[in-house]
Amino acid sequence: MANHKATRKSARQSLKRREHNRYYAKTTRNAIRALLKVSEKDVAGEQLPKVISMVDKLAKRNIIHKNKASNIKSKLTKKINALTA
To answer: Structurally, how many domains does the chain consist of?
Structure first.
């Protein structure tokens, strides 16, 4: 365990941030899974912008890398475009 006062505070903050980041990452992963399960193109087309927004926010907050966010968005868009109407 940390001995300095500032290091103790840093440890507390990192735990709090970790929980916060894990919540948003898990919520986004669940949204992606739900989007991939949808088989109707119009319903998926409505959900896609919301999920892309969530992924962009993760990248903005440095929870995931910007290139990973780009890959996720690309794969989701390809999948949705491949659905039949």
So the answer is: 1
